[in-house]
Structure formats: structure tokens, C-alpha cells
Amino acid sequence: MPLTNIQYDRIFRQYEEKQRISRLEAERRRADVYERIPDYRELENTTASLSVAQGKKLLSGDTDALETLRKDLAGLKEQKKQLLLSAGFPADYLDPVYSCPDCQDTGYRNREKCHCFRQAEISLLYEQSGIQDLLKQNNFSLLSYEYYTGEALALFQNAVKTSRNFIKNFNSDYHNLFFYGTVGTGKSFLSCCVAKELMDQGYSVIYFGATGLFDLLSDAAFYTKNRDERQNAYADLYRCDLLIIDDLGTELTNQFTSSQLFSLLNERHLGKKSTLISTNFTLAQLRDRYSDRIFSRITSNFDVCRLAGEDIRMYKLQGAERENS
Fold it and tell me: What's the structural domain count of the chain?
């Protein structure tokens, strides 16, 4: 699902709006300070006139003018800071306020796209795939153990603990996750929980159902129309901080999909880019469905969590029907 020019224009307009809001907030704060601290404006005027005066001296050959200016400006800066503090303002009250301090709401750092720009791109992909709606219904704030008992409860608790540790150590400890088990036992729920937590921390996350993922891989390999856009989306699968593949096994499996899956998993592993996979297959079914090298890659490089129990979605549906009857 590559982004269109219209979608990129939308992202740029969002940055323009962020910059406009930042300017308005800066103007509001400065007006607030001028009203409550009249002397602050005088200090700012002094700063400007002092810079001009010392600049003239420097042009006239006064070699000490620059160092004198530095000292004078440092003194004025300290005076302004003390005025702010004495009036109850934070010392940095008049510093620019950015939603992303790293790029100062420009979207770029050192001529490269900032992480916030990358996340904005991926968020648009989420809108196309419906993942944002999924995250509203599947996140840790809605976590419940009430539908689990016995072994199923212990397995789910372990999967939750593993997921939380994965999130906690994401920046410092490379890991992958693999959830497997019967339908409706919480695999997709936990995948969404992990996605939301990491997105909230600013990491780039791409979430694909297996069928949609392999459709994209096929398009990138065989279709020439909009090839650059397709290749960019293809490259994102390898570069994003976390790739989530939901419902592995629902796609049409053949030699092409198997080779593409291995290549994707292998390249992400070599680049220390984390991957999360969920499937309804057992490990034995996974081994039979895919190549030995894919099975080996998953079982050796992923933290494997089994989930079990009854289909929670059916429980919820039955409960809703009882309430409405």
C-alpha cells in the first residue's frame, strides 16, 4: 500500500500546521511575559542594540568586540532568566515548543526523514489497512484475564509478560516474538498491544495480515506500474523498527511466498530489526507448511509463546446476545 503524492502532501500540510501552532504559542507566551514583566522587553531591546553596536566595532577592527559581546549577552541572558523565574515562569518558557524536538517540526534531520515523518507515513498505511481502529479495541488498557482458566490462563499470562518485556527492552535488546495457538485466544490482541505501545514511543511499526503482506511482495516483484512507490513500500518492510505479520498461514503458500518470507525474516534478522508473527498453526503444521529453514529461523530466533483455550470472540458474542435477549 504505497503512499500517493496526495498523501505526502497531507503529511507536509500537517507539519505546516504544527509550525503555525508553534509560532502562535510562542507569540502568546511572549505577549504574556511582556504584560507581566515590562522589564523583560527592555532587556530584549538592549540585547538587539548591543549586538548592533558591537558588530560595528568588530567591522571597525576592534578584535575584542566579539568576546565582549559574548560576555554581555551571557549576562543579559541570565538577567532574563531570573526575571522569568521571579515572575513564576519556567526558565525555558520562551524557548520554542515542538511536537518533535529532533527535527523541530520540519520532518527532516540532516536531509534525512525524521522518525516522526516515517511514523506519519506508516500511520497513513495504518489508515488504509484499518489498524488504527484495531488499536482502539486491542490495547493493554483493555487487557482482561476473565476468559482464561487453568493452563490457558498460565499460557496467556506468560505471553503478556513476554510482550511487556519485549516492549520494555525494545531499544536495547534485539528480540522477535512468535504467537501461536488456536483461534480467538489473544494472539492478534497481544500483537496490537505491542504495536500501540511501541508506536506511542515513536518507533516505526508496520502491521500486515499475511495475505496483504504477500500481495505487496508480489506487486513489488512483478508489477512495473508505480514501481518506485511499490519499491519504497517494499523497502519499509525491511527498515521499520517492528514488522508484525498477523495470521501467518492464511495466505496462499507456494515457492514464491516461502522464498519471500525467508528473505524478509533473514534480512530483518541480519539488520537486528524485530519481527512479530502470529499464526493459528501448531509448530508441527508450521514446519510442514514452510521450508525447514523458515521453521529453523523462527524457532531459533523468536521468543515462542503458545496460547490456548476457547474462542474468546465467541464468548463475547454469546454474552452480548444474552444481554440483548
Answer: 2
